[in-house]
Amino acid sequence: MRLKHSRVFALLSSRLTALPLAAIPLVGILAGAPVAMCEETASAESPYPVVFEEDFENGIERWEIVDPKSWAIQEHGLGKSLAITQRESDYKPKVRSPLHIALIKGVELESFVLTFKVKSTKNTGNHRDCCVFFNYQDPTHFYYVHTGAKPDPHSGQIFIVNDAPRTALTENETGVPWTDDWHDVKVVRDFDHGSIDIFFDDMTTPILSTHDKTFGKGRIGLGSFDDMDAFDQIELRKGAPAH
Question: What is the mean pLDDT of residues 119-132?
Answer without folding.
Answer: 93
